[in-house]
Amino acid sequence: MSAVAVFITAANAREARRLATALVAERLAACVTDAGVVHSVYRWKGRVERARERLLIAKTRRARLAALVARVKTLHSYDVPEAVALPIVGGNPAYLTWVERETDQRATVPSTRRGVSRAADRAATFSITRRPSSSSRNRG
pTM for this one? Predict the structure, then answer.
């Protein structure tokens, strides 16, 4: 599988939720992580601008990238929304298999992640549904 991580900025939390929900519901992304508030500096119409935005990271297959970007453009409040992809060169095989399955445009029912061992399934589910608390994160 050829997976990509797509960075998308949103104007605010409401727009971020709307984008994330639509991309996952339409199987354009398996998962969209809201990485929180970021501060962007950019040139727009000849002026240097600063903005407080939300950063989304969508995980999908490369074959769905064009459709994902097109959908972001239709839903986004910006004239030129950011949607840039980076290749995923490796990772948890169970998670990457899940990304592939969840972004299969032929699928019509929720994935049960068939064919993945129970331990791998639990590990993938844990990484998707639970975030470490700030006190348990490595501060190295």
Answer: 0.76
